Amino acid sequence: MIERSYTVALIGNPNCGKTSLFNQLTGANQRTGNFSGVTVSGRVGECVHKGVRLRIVDLPGIYSLSQNRSEERVARDYLDDEPPDLVLNVLDAGNLGRHLALTSQLMEQGLPLLLALNMLDEAERNGVKLDLSALSDALGVPVLPSDGRRKLYRERLLDAVVEQLQAHVVSRSLRIDYEPHVNALLQQLEDQCLPRWQSVRWLESEDDVRFDLTAEQQALMKTRASIESEHVLSIAELLSEGRYGWVHGLLHRVGVVHTERNLADDRLDNLVLNRWLGLPILVALLWLMFETTFTAGALPADWIGLGVDWFSVQLVQLMPASLLRDVLVDGIFAGVGGVLVFLPNVVLLFLFMELLEQSGYMARATFLVDRMLSRVGLHGKALVPLVMGFGCNVPAIMATRSIEEPRARLITILINPFMSCSARLPVLLLLAGVFYPDNAGTVLFGIYTLGVLVALACAGVFARVLPAHYDETFIMELPPWRMPGLRSLLLHLWDRSRDFLTKAGTVILVGSILVWLLQTFPRGGEPLLQQLGHALTPLFAPLGFSWHETVALLSGFIAKEVIVASLAVVYQSSAENSGQLQQAIGQSLPPSAGLAFMVYTLLYMPCLATLAVIRRETGRWAWAGLSLVLGLSLAWVFAWITFHVGQWLL
Asked: What does this protein do (predicted)?
C-alpha cells in the first residue's frame, strides 16, 4: 500500500554518475556515457520503496547554479519553481574539491539535502581516503556511499532517502564567510528582507534573477562597481573564491587524504593525447571499429540470412500460389529479412561506440579534435552531438541544446545529417559486401570519413556566411579511465537491438509492403514502380544507377533502412535468396556505380524524422528545407565524381 508520494531531485556535476544512479533507482535505461553533456534536459522516473512512492527527477549535470548555460537554467528554474521534497546531490568521491562547490550553493539555498558519494572504489584506487561520518557531521547532512554501475548500495540509499523524507528534517541554510566587503553588501541586502541565497544569486548573475528588488535594494547594487574595481575581480569571482575556500577548509577539517596518483592513467593520457600520436591512434581505432563490424558480423549475418531464406522456402511449399503468399515471400520476407540480416553488424558498431564512450576515450577524442573544429566555427562541445549522429541524427540534433552560441548550434544541426547514422549502415554493408568483400572495413571507414569531411567543409562555409553572436569558451573536464560495466553495455545493446527490431516490424514492414504493391500492380502491364523509376532514371543515369536503385533511394526518405528492403523487393524476381540478391546487384551495377550509390546514400536527404526535428529545434522550415536541398545537391555531385573517377580506377 502506497502511503505517500514524494519528489526527489537528482543533481550533480557532469559525469558524476548521476544518470547511472537514476537508471538504477528507477529501473530506466537512459543513455549514459563517460563524458559530460549526456543529460541536457530533465528526466523523470518512479520507484516504490517501503510503501513510499518516489518521483525521481534527473536534472542536467551542472557545475554551478550561477552560470547561464541552458543546463544551469533548467536545473535552477526547477529548484526555484518546483522545490522538491529532497535534493539528492550526487558527487564524485575522487573529485570533492570541485563537486562540493555546487553542494555549497544548494546548502545556501536551504534545500533539504542528502549527499550520495559515487565512485568510491575509483577514489580509493587513486589514493583518496574518505571518512564519510566526519564529512556528514561537518556538513550537517547525511552522506552515503552509492554506485551507479552496481546495486551495491541501492537499498541503503533508498532507506536513507525515505527516512529523511518521513522525518521532515528542516534544513539550515549555509552561511559562507566571503570577502569582508562582499559580506557587508550581503548583510545590507538581507536587512532589506532579501534572503541571503537570493542576494548571492543576484550578485553572481544579475541578469538572470527573476525576483524583483525594491528601490533601496537596487541602490545597494551600485556598490558592486567600487568593490570590483578595488579587488580587480568581479563579484562573481570573489564569491567563487569564498565558496572554494569553504570547500578547502571543509576537506581539511574532515581529513580527506590524497596518498598517491594513478600513474597508469597519466601514462595512458600522455599516449592518446600526444600531439603527434593522438590523431593516428584515433584513426586506427575507428578503422578497427569498422573492420570488425564487417568481419565479425559476417557469420551471424549469414546465419540470419539462411534462416530468412528457410522460412521463405517453407512458406512457398506450404501455401498455395496466391496474392497473400506473394506479399509474404516477395514483399515482407524479402524486404524485412533483407534488413534483419544486418542486425549483428549494427550491434557490433554500437558495442564499439559504447566501449569508447564508457572507457573515457571519447572525451579525449573531443579534446583532440577541438582545434580542428574551431577552424570551422565550432568547438569541442559540438563533438558529442556529431558522434551521436553515428547512432541516430534525431537525438543527436536534440543534443545540440547544450551548445549556447546560436550560430555554432545552428551549424551543428545543419551538418549533423552528414554523419552516417546507423540506418545507413545496412545499405553500406550490403554494397561493400557485394563489390569490395576483401576490403569492406576500409571502404566503410572511407565512407564515414567522407561524411565527416563534408560536414566540416559545410561548417566552414556556414561559419563564413552566418554571423556569430559571441564566442563561447570551451572548457573540458577529462573523466577518469574506466572499465565499462557489463550490465550497462548489455542494456545499451539491448536498447539498440530493440529499436532496430521495432523499426523492422513497423516502418520497414510498411515500406516493404508498399514497394511490393507498386512493383506488382498493375498486372499485365508495366508496374507503377518501374514507371516511376524509368521516369527518374535520366536524372540518375549519369551516376550509373538503374531504375532499381532510383526507386530504392526514393523510399529512403521514410527511413534509410527501407533502401535495403526496396532493393530486396525490386530484385526479388531474379533473386530467390539473400546470396542471389547480392549477386543480382553485382550483375546490375559496375563497382564504380556501387561506390557512387554508397556515397549518394551517405549524403542525400535526411529522413522524415530528422527533417521534423531540424524544424522543431531551429523554429523554421527554411532551415529544414536548406538541409534537404543541400544534401540532395552534394550527394549528386559527389556521387557523379565518384562514379566517373571510379570508372578509371576500378
From this structure: Probable transporter of a GTP-driven Fe(2+) uptake system.
Please give the Cα distance from 542 to 639 (Å, whole number): 9
pTM: 0.83
Cα within 13 Å of Cα(615), Cβ side: 12
**Rounded (10°) angle between helices 180-191 and 223-231:** 170
Query: CA 420, 579, 597 angle in degrees (round to 5)?
Result: 35
**Buried (b) or exposed (e) across 199-222, using 16+ Cβ within 10 A?**
bbbbbbbeeebeeebeeebeebee
Instruction: Confirm whether residue 58 is marked as ligand binding.
Output: yes
Question: Is residue 119 annotated as involved in ligand binding?
Answer: yes
Residue 17 labelled as part of a binding site? yes
* Residue 120 annotated as lining a ligand binding site: yes
118 forms beta bridges with 92
- Cell numbers 540518375 correspond to 540
29 is annotated as contributing to ligand binding: no
Q: Count the helices and strands in the chain (H runs, E runs).
A: 31, 8
Q: Is 193 annotated as a binding residue?
A: no
Residue 18 annotated in ligand binding = yes
Indicate if the pLDDT at residue 371 is higher than 50. yes
118 in a labelled binding site: yes
Average pLDDT, the chain: 87
13 annotated to bind ligand: yes
Ranges 78-82, 158-162, 498-502, most confident: 158-162
Distances (CA, A) of 294 to 312, 602, 634: 25, 17, 27
Residue 12, annotated as binding a ligand? yes
Domains observed in the chain: 4-167 (3.40.50.300), 180-258 (no CATH), 279-466+484-649 (no CATH)
